[in-house]
Amino acid sequence: MPRFALLDWIAIGGYLIFALAVGILLTRRASRGTGEFYLAGRTLPWWIAGTSLVATSFAADTPLVVAGWVRSDGIAKNWLWWGMAVGGSLVIVVLAAWWRRLEVTTDAEIIEHRYHGRPARILRGFYGGYHALITNTMVLTWVLVAMKKLVRVILDLGDQNYDGWIVAGALLLALSYSFMSGFWGVVITDLFQFALALLGAVVLAWKAVDELGGLGPAQAAFAALPQHLTTMFPKDVNPETGISTGWEALSWWMKGFGSFVIFVGVQGWLNKNADGGGIGVQRYSACKTENHARGAALWFHIAHYCLRPWPWILVGLASLILIDPSALPLLENADGTFRPDHEAAYPMMMAMLLGPGLFGLLCASFLAAFMSTLDTHFNMASAYLVNDVYRRFMRPNQGDRHYVWVGRCAEIGVALLAGLMATAADSISDLFVLSLSLLGGLGPAMLLRWFWWRANTWTEVSALASSTVMTLLLNTTQLGAAHNLLDIPYPLSYPLVVGTSLVICLITTLLTAPVDRDHLCAFFAKVRPVGLWGPIGRSAPGQKRAIFLGWAGALALIYGLMLGIGEFLMGTPFMLSFCCAGVGALVLRWTWPRTAV
Questions:
Q1: pLDDT class for 4, splitting at 50, 70, 90?
Q2: 94-106 tens-digit pLDDT
Q3: Residue 257 has what DSSP assignment?
Q4: Distance separating alpha carbons of residues 506 and 463, to the nearest angstrom
Q5: Which among 127, 169, 254, 596 counts the fewest CB atoms within 10 Å?
Q6: In terms of Cα–Cα distance, which of 373, 374, 443 is closest to 53?
């Protein structure tokens, strides 16, 4: 275990000074009003908004989770999040531009733009509180859990007695500049945080490959690992247990090709971020134009899926060779048994391979990744509480500076709540899966609001309620119970949640009254959506066809680049994937001006 040297402290201290300086310098600008504190005055170019979104999704937890998945289930486990590029490509093509046209502060605000009446007002307020106190807090919790694990390994803390101090210190660091500079501080520091975090990941991957003798010997060593760990696509590896019937056999199949089908075909576009997600919507709304919003979405998806994961995957594969499972700390299962904590392998590789200076650089990069996620979710949770609850229902006629200070106080409250939850949790992966399932059934309703005129407030209320109930029924092991109530494994539980919610929300929609026609016409005139809007308005000729072509082109570009880079690093044929990416880029370029009508 390396000790911190002077160079390590210089690297960490330099980053902290930079972050605090940005917070202080931008405090006055952020304090002008909520438009500056939450949206940076809607002046961001695509490369700042997109990079900020990448940095936010690049938290301290993600390298640990990805490397842990590679060790326990193989590279193909990453389709759990890679599949979401299916829905993300639709955001690139049209949804980012539609959000910018709507000029909202949060995604909860769309409820009163799209629907009308008292139910819409209540649903907007509920979404504001729900996203601030539950969904955003859940993300903050698993990021803090990752920080606990990192600090335990880096400082060689043998027990959990210091977890409270670790969490408290992490929260104070992130709040130190988010509190002062709001969204301006978030996006400006995100530029530096992304560069530093990506550099740190690449340095550790390079050292891991070098430890194996270089890229060629490393590729040979990876090829010698069990195939189900190194293949890009899931394969059904029979565990030779004689399983042939029942849920247990289905559970085995779901770890292979069945999981891939669900991750890409269902979860990939019917998920909690189906139409952009709260964090994405804030960035798109903050862009200077609709075209910049689409450019931000494109850059985010390329960086998110194609550039970032492979350094983490290389470290995970190398750790299979360099770290024996017996050397890992243990996590307790619900039934009292123990399992290796594969998420701890990544910080152990840091401690094993890096010397003075580089070790500090990696620690600083993790600190940057950690703070870039926390500051965003502090600011986003505050925006929900102020914009959709406090100003809308409690104190609607106060000055902008008043709301900025209320928002700052809200950040502190959310931080305290997340800190309490983080001291009790210890599995990042379980929290991530639970969060996906909890709002998974809301995904269809989120898309229907844009593409079907008949959707109403009750469409979303019924989808949210049924998704929550189904998740609690099917994922009780993640809530502390000894067994799943219905014994249905994830990811099979996911399409059951989504399918049930879709049926219920469609039936509810048809049994309830449509939205007022004048209200719908105003929404259509401002956003100009496509789809089943016949009684309300018509889209531009050829726009629907261009959207489908653009969607396909964006998918080919993203997945072609992602797989091609991975195949190159693994030493397998890669030209076909890069050719697909090239064709996708040409198709996307051709459709770009034809979809934003």
A1: low
A2: 999 999 999 999 9
A3: H
A4: 9
A5: 169
A6: 373
